[in-house]
Amino acid sequence: MILSIESSCDDSSIAITQIRDKKILFHQKISQEREHSSYGGVVPEIASRLHAEILPQILEHTKPYFSNLKAIAVTTEPGLNVTLIEGLIMAKTLSFALQIPLIGVNHLKGHLYSLFLERDCIFPLGALLVSGGHTMLLEAHGFDHIKIITQSIDDSFGESFDKVSKMLGLGYPGGPIVESWAKKGDDRAFDLPLPLKSRKDFAFSFSGLKNAVRLAIQKQEMQDEAFIGDICASFQRVAIEHLLKKTQIFLEQNSKSANSWRYFGIIGGASANLALRNAIEAMCESYGITLLLAPLKYCSDNAAMIGRVALESYLRGEFSDFTLQTKPRVSSL
Length: 333
Hints:
5-stranded mixed sheet, 10 strands, 10 helices, 41% helix, 333 residues, alpha/beta
C-alpha cells in the first residue's frame, strides 16, 4: 500500500491506496473553510498551523496499515510553501521511521489522475484544469508526456469566483456560494464583458471580468437578494462562456490533428460546477469526444489523487531522496 499526504493549500488529507488493484482503502480530508471564511480567502500562516494540528490527527487512523506500506507519497508542488512544508515534514519522518521510499508528487498531475481513481488510465486525452489557483488546458499522452497548452495570464477561474463572493460579502469558498446564488438569478441581467473576445489564441484571463463585476456592485445602491442572484448568474455565465470559447479552439484543433484524442476531462476543484460540466459535456458531444469526470468528492484537493499518481511512480521505480524540497510555483508536469 501507499500512504499519500496532501497539504498544498487549505485541505488536510491523507489516503491509503492498495497497489495491486488501485483501491482506495482509506481517505480522509478535513477542510479549513470555516477558519478562513471571515478573511474571504486562505491565510497561509493559519493554514500552515492548522495542517500541523490536523494531519497528525488523521494519521492516527492509518496506523493499522503501517505494516503493509511500501512507500510514502506527498504533494511537493505547486502550492503555498508554508503548507507544502507541513506535509513534506510528515512524509520524510514516516519514510525514515518506516524505512520505505519517498515519492514527491506534482499536485496538478494529481488532479489529472483524479480521473483514474480505482481504474486504469486512459491516454491520450485533453483536459481543462480549473481551480482556485490555476486555469489550464492540458494535453496528455502518458505519465511522462503531459503538456501545458495554455494557462491564465492573471486570475484563475476559481479565484475569480472567490473574489466575486468576497465583494458581495458572501463568504469563502466562493465557488459553490456563487453557483448557488446564480441559480436564483437572471444570467442576462448584466451585460458583462467577455474576456479576450477578439483574441483567437488559447489564453485565459479573468481580471477584467472581475473588475466589471466590482464596478457593477459599486453602482448598485440596494444590494438585495435579487441583485445578488442576477450579478452571480451573469458573472458565472460569462466566466463559463470564456472557458468554452477557448476550449472550443482546442477541440477544433484536435479534430484536425493526425494524433487526435477522443477523451477530454474537466479537473480541479472548480470542475464541480455543474453549469460548467453540462456546457463542456454538450461541446464534447458535438465533437464526438467522451467526457471524463472525477467523482465530485475528489474534484477538490485530496490525498487520493496524490496516491494514484504515486502508484504509477512506484510501479516505475521512480522515488525521491531526502533532499526533496517544495516548489511553490508550477514549472512543468
